[in-house]
Amino acid sequence: MTESDNRSRRIRIWDSGPFRRLWFVGLAGSLGLWTVQIGLTVAVLAEHSGSTLAWLLLAGTVPGLLAGPVAGAVVDHVEPRLAAGVALAVQAVLIMGMAVSLSQSLIAVAGCNAICSIAAQFPPLALQRLRYALLDERQWPLANAAVSRIMAITTILGAVAGSGVSDLGALPVFGFACGLQVLGAFVVWRMPVIGRMGLDTAAAPRRLQLGGGIAVLRRNRAARAVVALCTSWGLIGGGLTVLLGIFGTDLSGDGRGVALLFTVYGAGLLVGTVLAGQLAATTMRTHHLTAYLVQGVAWTSVAPLATLAVPLAIVLFIMGIAGGVIIGIEVTLLLRDVPRHLHGRVFSIYHLADGMSERTSLALVGAALAVLAPTTVVVIGGLASIAVAMLWSLGSRGGRRSSGLSTPPAGRMATDESG
Question: Where are the transmembrane segments (predicted)?
Fold first, then answer.
């Protein structure tokens, strides 16, 4: 494909009004939740230890993780606009509940966060279905790269907005996050009806079924690779907010250091997602694995640089670039050969694997911070992440050698080459 072809496809994506609205809904929802996450981090670390923050975040997010597979099945069987709109509205209410409870009871904050995390499972799955229904299949990789930039933009803007808790208090900051959820719900409800967007629900059975996704993963090595490798990120991402919150607070004594570190990391994510949009489909799998290894090495390097603002920022920027490449191509690799009516369930399994590794990591970080220095915890997480990526790489190579005796059918060639 020529560069001019690539540009024309990108232009057609952004010229689509429904796609722009879906992108905005994803940005509003993600930015609101990340603002709350950073706001909680700054507020809790001002009065409590990093271990307390870790346990608070863990208690508030595990229910959402467990609800993921059910959310995927629901989104595969109901109108996605309904699922996304209702979930965003519920999140808006619960965010204000957290704001009111923050000065009263951390248990109440964790309870509101827990229900909010359940609601948060629905919008990403619903928006993904709507995007794939709207666009031509050849446009999916570019759409995924464009949507992945939401995480980068969210990381930067959410860090700035959330850190305002130290100066403005919780109510204005959480009120801003609540408003974003309400705006996202309004926009998604104003979208054209699903029938006009060509959403194919005929292939999906009418009864709510949780199966199908695992069966697809058994047959599709490319999708299995993505699910396995995402656990490598979980070993880092589980404690990322807590540990960068600690380092940022130590650097400045308030939320400004936290905002700085997450802003630099978010800038790297943005660069990485732009690079991901330029990658050829035939090289995606190699770049995917390489980025995971670079990410692990960069996170391990954070430990000796934790008290040095400039070197720490440089390493986080590099780590962000690797992370941006990952999120820019990961969904494309995951869903490339998955039937449309199973996208929600496969996507939810991917989120479940990612979330399980993150929550396990967060629990271990919370326990480790009671007896170990934060820098030691960083090294352990970084080395574990590298080990997981390397082990999967070795296992994948072995699988390719053993399968090299037979030629896959033409319809499976893309799956086997990208696995």
Answer: 21-46, 52-75, 82-100, 106-127, 139-162, 168-189, 226-247, 259-277, 289-306, 312-335, 362-392
Helix, coil or strand: residue 339:
coil
Poorest-pLDDT segment among 52-61, 190-199, 338-347, 389-398: 190-199
CA distance 63 to 59: 8
The DSSP code sequence of 256-286 is: HHHHHHHHHHHHHHHHHHHHHTT--GGGHHH
Q: What angle do CA 337, 343, 345 make, to 5 degrees?
A: 125
Q: Residue written as tokens 């964790």?
A: 110
Model confidence at 397, pLDDT cuts 50, 70, 90, reads low
Task: Tell me how far apart the alpha carbons of residues 237 and 155 are, in angstroms, rounded to a whole number.
Answer: 13
Structural domains of the chain in order of their starting residue, each with its CATH number: 14-193+212-399 (1.20.1250.20)
**pLDDT tens digits, residue range 326-381?**
988 888 888 777 777 777 777 777 877 887 888 788 888 888 888 889 999 999 99
Burial label for 390, CB within 10 Å (0-12, 13-18, 19+), is middle
